[in-house]
Amino acid sequence: MKAIDTNLVTRLAARGYVTREIAMYANISESTLFRRCADALDRGYTLRNASLRKKQFDLAMNGNATMLVWLGKNLLGQTDRQELTGAGGGPIQYERTDLRKLTDEELAQLEELVEKAHAETGDARRNSE
Q1: Separation in Å, CA 16 to CA 22, 31, 44, 52, 79
Q2: Long-range Cβ contacts of 49-56 (<8 Å, 24+ apart)
Q3: Interatomic CA distance for residues 103 and 107, integer angstroms
Q4: Is residue 1 part of a domain?
Q5: Is 71 found in the same domain as 15?
Q6: What is the pLDDT of residues 48-105, one digit of tens each?
Q7: Taking the CB of residue 111, how many other CB atoms lie within 10 A of it?
């Protein structure tokens, strides 16, 4: 059985190499890499992740607002939340409309207006993209 340099595997994984590249450098197949070097791969990827996490934390602590927000959301469960409320912070009020009171002609006019509003909204979306 060919000897495999597991330290090389760990170092390459820690630097972010993918398994195909690590196998190539170690001159073995990927299946052999997975079968015989699972611990070395895991150790290397854990070191990589810790290094990245430290860099991100350092950026945040040095005032990088984007990283502060990202870490807050991912580590602290913070979210961007928008709440809609009615007048005075109360519930949103709505009224039901009894369309049965409209004539067929009025319903047809309403349908045309709604279709026009939808078409204009669609046009505005397409123009903003």
Answers
A1: 10, 19, 8, 10, 30
A2: 51/14
A3: 6
A4: no
A5: yes
A6: 999 999 999 999 999 999 999 999 999 898 988 877 888 888 888 888 888 888 899 9
A7: 10
